[in-house]
Amino acid sequence: MKPKRLKLLIAYDGRLFTGWQSQAAGNGIQDHIERALAKIVGSPVRIHGSGRTDAGVHALGQVAHFEEPPQTRTTARWQIALNANLPPEIRILKVTRAPGTKQGFHARYSATGKRYTYRIWNDRFLHPFELGRAWLVPYPLDLATLRAAAAVLVGRHDFAGFAANRGEPDESTIRTISDIRIAKRGPLITFTFEGEGFLYKMVRLLTGSLIRVGQGRGDLAWLQAILSGAKKSNHCAPPDGLCLAKVFYR
Amino acid sequence: MKPKRLKLLIAYDGRLFTGWQSQAAGNGIQDHIERALAKIVGSPVRIHGSGRTDAGVHALGQVAHFEEPPQTRTTARWQIALNANLPPEIRILKVTRAPGTKQGFHARYSATGKRYTYRIWNDRFLHPFELGRAWLVPYPLDLATLRAAAAVLVGRHDFAGFAANRGEPDESTIRTISDIRIAKRGPLITFTFEGEGFLYKMVRLLTGSLIRVGQGRGDLAWLQAILSGAKKSNHCAPPDGLCLAKVFYR
Predict the structure, then answer these.
(1) B12/A91 Cβ within 8 A
(2) Domain annotation for chain A: domains and CATH numbers
(3) pLDDT band at A102 (very low <50, low <70, confident <90, very high)
(4) Buried b or exposed e, range B186-209, using 16+ CB within 10 angstroms
(5) Distance from CA of A168 to the nearest CA of B (A)
(6) Chain A residues with CB inside 8 Å of B12's CB?
(7) Which residue has the higher pLDDT, A185 or B98?
(8) Which helix (H) or strand (E) holds B80?
(9) pLDDT for the residue numbered B104
(10) DSSP-derived 3-state class of residue A173
């Protein structure tokens, strides 16, 4: 029998941290949660996240798991103990015992898809309440053009032209985007991306490229040329507007 | 003829500042705007706000005015120049030439009323996106009780029992609250207060006292006793949740 795993649903404001991944400086979100766990359990505990988020990127629904230690407690007690030992910019929204499937639950390998949102503040000045939470785009954006451009990207494509190289040359760059929704409410435009998985910096490169097209500085043929491998996009949107909204599991 | 006045509509995230009012340390919101104006105009400019907000209190619609200097510019240029010289936590949302009434426009004396909002996060833990922007109340709150309690406070009353003394003994403590609305969306409860004017810390004392009643730790008779002058409330809600939403002018 596989050992029981505890599954964490995590929200964070990414501004103060170097990203999800554990770092030598100890300021990754993973580092903070592992330190909190070590303090509670009394010995080192390794956690496994659904995937990395970059410095400054937020999460409403990051997921991680760890092996349940021998001296355990109720899930409600785990949540209280963790939040009491974490900086207030990181909160554990939920703790559950992972479903006991044959393969065992794994935050990364059991994930079937992800949802990211990207918030754009389309006005002349960034509202103070949106600092670090949205990207200021002070040019007119045509919503119909944005939606037509997004439709080009949906589907199964080689997204190598929308990825930053992270030194993993053998990784396939083919991914399926199942949906891109674009909503506007006042000056706030929200892009919602759903897909089975995303390459490194892919959502930010897709967003930056869509905004180029929305401004009229690129067209659908340019996007198609990137998808076909003829070009690479270097229009990367800043981390501020990006949020890992949800990780899907079967 | 009165000199022309320029009217500023101002939003700020109050966390980094010592409040609206100019302070010796120079970190009042007024200080920042006056420094930006002095830099633009080349000589000191005094601004007049609609009223003070405390350290940590936010604004979506603070109003201030200043005398238009001889070397002037369009209102759009004023807005660009001011925002370029202000910290990003303070934004000028709008600049207009003040209406030329007989008495002359005055941000404080021409105001006929104010709207404040107070945001309460009613859950076990404060969401990281609400840090500094809402008050965490982790106890069950009864909405019907809150609304009944709010109804007791609406109207013309002596609010001395809901005010902190700021050393202005001669000031009347009679005020009229025209409306208190209470809205709930998920864990977020928003109180909206409207009235001709509010005493020092009055909105935070009203909020803290309403929450006592909503928790069942005070009742309507207790609120009435405070209004009648028999008691004083010392239940002051933290600044985090408070926002000056709008200043009304005729």
Answers:
(1) no
(2) 5-97 (3.30.70.580), 112-249 (3.30.70.660)
(3) low
(4) ebebbbbbbbeebbbbbbbbbbbb
(5) 33
(6) 128
(7) A185
(8) helix B75-84
(9) 85
(10) coil
